[in-house]
Specification:
The structure holds two protein chains of two kinds. Chain A is an alpha/beta fold. Chain A is 31% helix and 10% strand. The longest helix of chain A has 20 residues. The chains are: A alpha/beta, B alpha+beta.
């Protein structure tokens, strides 16, 4: 061993009411840490100490890092990181163990990629302008349970149950469990409202099922717009994770944001309304076994053709993002082929066409169903503001040949799913096989549970 | 590759205030780390104090983890350090228990690793006996510190707070702690 290998740095030092602690790191093994030094969250050095005596690595400010330092005034860290980096680099022994360094780098990387998701468009309030969403953190599954009993078994609770499990025993949800809404979500909501208006005027009932296959938060927003007219079934089967292939944490934020819209619509749940099935649109997102990415992909969980028929469905409107690019995701091919085979029509709607200017050839036609719609439906008012674009769905419905119209038209309406070979989806469990670890990792640790519990222990103890 | 070794004890501090204060002073005295010699001095003092306190240990746990040593070390460290933000109320009412933890990260297959393997090679029924914890704690200063990549000594709470209540340490988040038998 060289002399340098015999030196230690103080990585952290605590002297607070709740904790007295010191942690040392051998300079032999700080090479990889040095590059990760950060000024984030640094506090002033204590009286009588020179700043260069104290080093804090990135690991301590990793996504969960606030728990460690934010409330501790005596936490010390270096102010002139560059100086220390160079000092450390000088001290690093030339005979450092490469395997150890790699392991440390891998662990640091893993720590930086902890499970806590980042919410891109957080909001302190829900769509109702209040913080009533907080009441839903522990009750999302119940809040989103379809009023129609025959739809309930089809709701997928994987994502909906996560907040409840994460905040169990705590009064304050962690910072990532917040409402979120993006401009694209608001647009999707407006389009959902427009579609609801049209469905109402067409007199659509249980014979119609909408399968909303959009990016998760937009699918939720669109469903919120539709909720006044549809029974919504959430089928998102992806655990949230900061580095997840599937961005289901954004979907969770949308569920919290739009929750009050869904709750307001529940009173109409016993009406014979269409069903709207919310899919996580990026559930099959590309993944190439990257070690720093969590595989939370899933396949759509929808009723079989026979089950659809049992639910009274005779028409399926598949709502995907873009107009005139008709295709379905791989996991829906077999279902759509079976539905068509069983006489349940499947038609496509590009969401982007809702709200687009009408084509010059468009000739408005009074929808016949509007004149005969049930009285119960007549009093059902869509929640939210109208985008004024409901003409578009009329247009499409007539193109589809549904509700008294005749089938004709463009790519979306003419497209029919054909059997095809699809990529294998074996093992796409949404991350369920690691649920315990994920939920544990998502659990707040600023108070309880800690120290130990979810963080430290695997089975209590083990002998050598 | 690295090996993790960690010991955690919940010790009844009533009547042991001086030892409790001395442990805290060990941390403060050695916060500037230094070299292997300073490390050994630090851990020798801590070990001696802990050995004296073993008869008052109510709960404990320990681990020797090979292969994934670094990850486990960081996991323990980050979890323990999160206690720095605990409000007084989280320690429960009327408790006098302190939680003392020592953690080490050593080079795999080094003499320090081999020594730890020998110390921890114990029949399972004895894992949580006082004698075992004395042996484990007594091993701290026996390590070859030139082969120790990292170490940490944690005492929670400080003597500004009376201590953990037993209910807290038998509750959520501490399910792993076992009764220490004589």
């Amino acid at each position: 061993m060289s002399d340098a290998a015999d030196a230690f740095l103080t990585e952290v030092f605590f002297d607070s009411r709740s904790l007295i602690a010191v942690r040392f790191t051998s300079t032999q093994h700080v090479k990889s840490t040095a590059a990760d030094l950060t000024l984030g969250g640094l506090d002033s050095a204590p009286s009588g100490e020179t700043s260069s005596d104290w080093v804090k690595g990135r690991a301590s400010d990793a996504p969960l890092g606030k728990r460690r330092f934010s409330v501790v005034p005596t936490i010390i860290a270096i102010a002139v990181v560059g100086v220390v980096v160079s000092t450390i680099a000088h001290l690093v022994s030339s005979n450092s163990s490469d395997a150890s360094l790699r392991e440390r780098e891998a662990a640091l990387q893993a720590q930086a990629e902890r499970v806590i998701p980042t919410i891109p468009s957080p909001s302190t309030v829900g769509v109702d302008g209040t913080d009533s969403w907080r009441a839903g953190v522990k009750s999302l599954s119940a809040d989103f349970e379809p009023v129609r009993e025959d739809l309930r078994p089809w709701m997928v609770r994987t994502l909906l149950d996560v907040p409840r499990d994460v905040v169990a025993g705590s009064t304050t949800p962690p910072s990532w469990i917040v409402p979120s809404v993006s401009p694209a979500d608001r647009q999707a909501f407006d389009r959902g409202v427009a579609m609801a208006e049209t469905l109402q005027s067409l007199g659509a009932e249980r014979e119609l099922a909408l399968i909303i296959d959009l990016p998760g938060s937009q699918a939720v927003a669109a469903a919120a717009g539709l909720a006044s007219m549809c029974d919504v079934v959430i089928t998102v089967d992806n655990l949230p994770h900061r580095s997840g292939v599937v961005k289901s944490h954004e979907t969770l934020g949308a569920l919290l944001y739009w929750r009050s819209k869904f709750l307001a619509s529940r009173k109409d749940g016993m009406l014979p309304r269409p069903s709207a099935w919310v899919l996580q649109g990026d559930r099959l997102a590309p993944y190439a076994n990257q070690p720093d990415v969590f595989d939370n992909r899933s396949v759509a969980k929808l009723p079989s053709s026979a089950a659809m028929r049992g639910l009274g469905v005779k028409k399926v409107l598949y709502v995907r993002p873009d107009a005139d690019k008709p295709t379905e995701q791989d996991d829906l091919v077999d279902l759509f082929v079976a539905l068509e085979k069983d006489g349940i029509e499947v038609r496509h709607l590009g969401m982007s066409s809702v709200g687009s200017p009408p084509p010059e050839t468009y000739m408005p036609v009074e929808p016949p169903a509007a004149q005969s719609r049930p009285q119960s439906q007549a009093s059902t008012k869509p929640v939210g503001r109208s985008s004024g674009s409901s003409w578009m769905l009329h247009y499409w419905m007539y193109r589809y040949g549904w509700y008294g119209g005749r089938s004709s038209g463009v790519a979306d309406t003419l497209y029919r799913t054909q059997p095809r070979v699809t990529a294998p989806t074996t093992g796409f469990d949404g991350g369920a096989s690691k649920r315990s670890a994920i939920v544990s990792g998502l659990t707040p640790r600023t108070s309880k549970p800690s120290p130990g519990g979810s963080w430290g222990r695997v089975g209590g103890s083990s002998g050598g | 590759m690295t090996t993790f070794f960690g010991v955690q004890l919940a010790i009844e501090s009533s009547g042991q205030e001086s030892a409790r204060r001395a442990l805290g002073q060990v941390v403060r005295d050695h916060r500037k780390a230094g070299d292997s010699l300073a490390q050994r001095q630090c851990w020798s003092k801590a070990s001696a104090l802990l050995v004296e306190l073993i008869p008052f240990a109510r709960l404990g746990t320990w681990d020797l983890i090979r292969d994934s040593g670094y990850a486990t070390y960081e996991e323990w460290a980050s979890g323990l350090e999160s206690m720095a933000g605990w409000p007084d109320a989280d320690f429960g009412r009327g408790g006098r228990l302190i939680l003392v933890s020592g953690i080490f990260l050593v080079e795999a297959a080094s003499s320090a690793d081999v020594m730890l393997g020998e110390v921890c090679d114990l029949p399972e029924p004895t894992w949580h006996q006082q004698a075992t914890y004395k042996k484990l704690v007594g091993a701290f200063p026996m390590l070859n510190f030139s082969q120790v990549q990292g170490s940490g000594l944690y005492i929670a709470p400080s003597d500004a707070i009376s201590g953990f209540s037993i209910d807290v340490l038998r509750g959520e988040g501490f399910e792993y702690l076992q009764d220490v038998s004589s």
